[in-house]
Amino acid sequence: MKNVLIIGSGISGLACAVKCAGLGLYATLISPVSSERSQSVMAAGGINAVTEECEEGDSVSCHIEDTLRGGARIGGKNAVTGLCEHAGDIIRYLEGIGTVFSVDSNGRPMIRAFGGQSFKRTHYCGSSTGKQIVSALIMEARRYEADGLIERKLRLDFHSALIKDWECFGALLYDEKKRLLVPFYADALVMATGGQNALFGKTTGTCLCDGYAAGKLFMQGADLKNLEFIQFHPTTLETAQKKMLISEAVRGEGGRLFYEDGGKRIYFMEDKYGPKGNLQTRDLVSREINNIGRDVYLDISFLDKKQIDVKLPEVRDLCRKYGGIDISQTPIPVAPAVHFFMGGIAVHLNHETNIKDLYAVGECASMYHGANRLGGNSLLAAIYSGWVAADDIFGRTENKTHPDFDRAIRNEEDKLTGLMSSKSSFSVIHIRDMLSDTMRKDMNMIRTESTLKEGIDDVDYLLSVAGQIWYDSSESTYTNYSLTGLLTLARAALTSALSRTESRGAHFRNDHPDMDDDYAFSTLISYDDGAYNTCLDKERVYEN
Amino acid sequence: MKIRILRQTEPDGDAYWESFDYDGTREISVAALLDHLNYNDDIINDDGVKTTRIGWDRSCMQGMCGACAMVINEVPSLACDTFLNKLKGNTLTIRPLRKFPVIHDLIVDRSVIQENLKSTDVYIGEYNPKENEDHRHQYEVAKCLKCGLCMEVCPNYRGGESFYGAMFANDCYLVYARNRKKSADMKSTYADHFGRTCSKSLSCMDVCPMNIPMIASMAKLNR
What we know:
The complex is a heterodimer.
Chain A: E1 3-7, H1 11-22, E2 26-30, E3 47-48, H2 60-70, H3 77-85, H4 87-96, E4 111-112, E5 122-123, H5 129-146, E6 150-153, E7 156-164, E8 167-175, E9 180-185, E10 188-191, H6 212-219, E11 224-225, E12 230-238, E13 243-245, H7 249-252, E14 256-261, E15 264-266, H8 268-273, H9 282-292, E16 296-299, H10 305-311, H11 313-323, E17 332-341, E18 344-346, E19 358-360, E20 365-366, H12 377-394, H13 406-420, H14 428-442, E21 446-447, H15 449-466, H16 477-481, H17 483-499, E22 508-509, E23 523-528, E24 531-536
Parallel strand pairs in A: 1-2, 1-10, 2-6, 10-19, 18-20, 21-22
Antiparallel strand pairs in A: 3-5, 4-5, 7-8, 8-9, 11-18, 11-23, 12-13, 12-17, 14-15, 14-16, 16-17, 23-24
Helix pairs in contact in A: 1-5, 1-12, 2-3, 6-17, 14-15, 14-17, 15-17
Chain B: E1 2-7, E2 16-21, H1 30-39, E3 69-72, E4 75-78, E5 91-95, E6 102-104, E7 107-108, H2 111-119, H3 135-141, H4 149-153, H5 166-178, H6 183-195, H7 203-207, H8 214-222
Parallel strand pairs in B: 1-5
Antiparallel strand pairs in B: 1-2, 3-4, 3-5, 6-7
């Protein structure tokens, strides 16, 4: 029986594990914490699919076209076609395993409008869709745990992949209980580690998704793709502890953006883009809010209070608890903030990287969303990508024997021991804070050549001192050893943004404000002993 | 304001109290306070001595994941949605959940939650709902964070050896309602590991951060 090692237990990791188990593969699901703590539970608004519940005139081809257009034409048509063609199956599957969708009087899942879509096709569970799907998938994983086909292991951190001659044989993990590195050999390794939040400090997501895995694999030879495309969600609420997402579901239910001018409300999105102005794509809405240059509000108070209670209870509670706002009475002050990473580990249509038997799924992989992701497509892609990887692994016949990694593992152990005894004036948290300051300043929504170069200089300096940090034993070992991977990833993201001398989707260059057809391709970046090499994927090697 | 924290370096180590002074805004959550103590500068206790950073679990920081469950002023709570200005007095006391083994400071091992659900086959398997299902209640139940607060506060819950706590009752109800083929089994499992022991203090409902009406799950399964 083939052994599949999956790192990360959010929706994409769970979906992959359950699919593997359903195919008779043995899946080990590794994560530092349980699935309930994953960022997936924060996905609020819904999941896109064209089903029989959808409006007349909608079709799978419309969903494909909306996704490609929303992604500013660099998503792969074949990839997106696969995603959208399977979306209906995914909704039916989620219903079949008992996900508690919001349903109509006939028990059928309800749909709402989301940004950048020609028709309403976002199926939802109140405003806690991710949480409801996680709850259902955890139960499904539990079913296969009982059958012995899934094993879940907690308090283990990813350290590096076990790679030889461009083939992956498993991963080296840090065991928090034993406090040592442990190899885990497998026939395939699937990364499901989420986005790159730590590069920016506090985002709408969890602090546990940091991007280290992408950075480390990049250093080990994996190509990365489209790192310059970072989604700023237009509606977040600033609080003392983080930027909190105000779900697109609010605008889907009719929420209106405005600013005040002389006591008069100016509905700027509707004025500029017509009745559907509030539901333009996220990149566009975020830039418009940024351009307004004054306080912007989101109003849903006109909606019947009962409708708010039924359709947006989590948004209602969040605003009341963290902002002291009763959304049935008062508009919500909103501002754009980092929310999602369209870029990540480059994968082929089967979700395998350029390293054999190394796969990436969910947000850590770059696929489907092009230069800007549509709301409601991330939950869809998380499940679909997990399925695609599982199917591909199942289709391979060999059971692998692994080469001898003992020397390489001892080498990593020695490096870790050296790090743990290191002393300097640079603490890991201090450097992480400086990194997020740099990224927020120089890799913000609006970029120029000079800011990006400043960012690269800053990160190069941080990289030069990262090997001489003061080992902070009151932080986790993972926090300490992950620093160089994070910095390398940040350097790669800045380099990718510098190389794209046009504006497209979520990447806006003030010095190159127009879209340029010569750049209608994904950016690839590879690492070669400290050199960062970018190119455009004109042959569409990865996503076509 | 005095912040007293029950700390423990290692799983087998001795617990000890350490105090900190805080004179900032009270318009913040306990989670933001812990962040402030840890990262505003070097962490200094109220004796003026530099100490180690306080260990605590966190993830979403907005009451959606249950990571930061702890006991705050003797009330089991989530640190991220407990605000200083809602607490009385000038001393804040924080300790780890007592019903779970301590790993480090405020971080505890809650794996017994999943183990008990796994060993009793609490999974839906196939959606095959009972005719009179209560959809609204199922939606609420499926939001359970598995944070452990209901177990911490429960007078009947000891360590999860036979009585598994209110979160278990909720998951049993979800399976009972969503797959009629398993309804009878779930009622029996529920009775064995919850129903026959629960003394109905309902303190679980007072502390549930999702405000899940556990009594509705119990009523349906006790029927």
